[in-house]
């Protein structure tokens, strides 16, 4: 199984990107906005992770650089000590307040574990959140309200799966996105991933970001920073895929 050196996260520099060499298509989000049932939300000691029980119609993505459907595995968040240092990817040298990773595996495999290490086995959508809104973003509130219930590491709770995804719905069809072949981050570092990085940011309030910093790790200390530092610069190609305005798929 192919492994790659650590290639993520990176600073995406608009002066160094290339336009996508293929017909650019939007990333299609299937079954995200009409998903039914519950999602589990867990404090795993490093981050907040959202999973949904296996069912016949799991959310999936397709389009852009992805030749087939990639099935939802999990969603987790990164944040940092302050609102200017909370993302793993940087865009033109700028960091955001938070970064969410929506992790998918190719439908050629049954699980993320099976897909790990296979060429184009995994695709992650990176979505930034920025503490720029004066008021809490109501679409993120269901998740924020779940956080006090999982203050201690290894605790979990539930909320509706739809509520777990609603906060990024408005950003799901941007005017363009970046994509590159990079690697997974800890704990499976060095395994190939198709990264799809959305340049815009979901506006949230400072108090919403702060709610994540109140969570405890295994040592019962606050998780104030769970971002990995940038990889040393490598010669890798980041493509930009400009899009026409498109509709939101369900
Ligand atoms: Zn991550």
Automatic annotation (TrEMBL):
The entry assigns this protein to a family as follows:
Belongs to the alpha-carbonic anhydrase family.
Role played: Reversible hydration of carbon dioxide.
Name the catalysed reactions: hydrogencarbonate + H(+) = CO2 + H2O
What does this protein need as cofactor? Zn(2+)
Alpha-carbonic anhydrase domain span: 1-242
* Cellular compartments per GO CC: cytoplasm
Q: Name one GO molecular function term.
A: carbonate dehydratase activity
- SUPFAM superfamilies on file: Carbonic anhydrase (SSF51069)
Q: Which organism does this record belong to?
A: Diploptera punctata
* E.C. code: 4.2.1.1
Transmembrane intervals = none
Query: Could you tell me what this protein is called?
Result: Carbonic anhydrase
Q: Which SMART domains match?
A: Carb_anhydrase
Q: InterPro entries in the record, alphabetically?
A: CA_dom, CA_dom_sf, Carbonic_anhydrase_a-class, Carbonic_anhydrase_a-class_CS
Q: What class of enzyme is it?
A: lyase
State the source organism's domain of life: Eukaryota
Alphabetized UniProt keyword annotations: Lyase, Metal-binding, Zinc
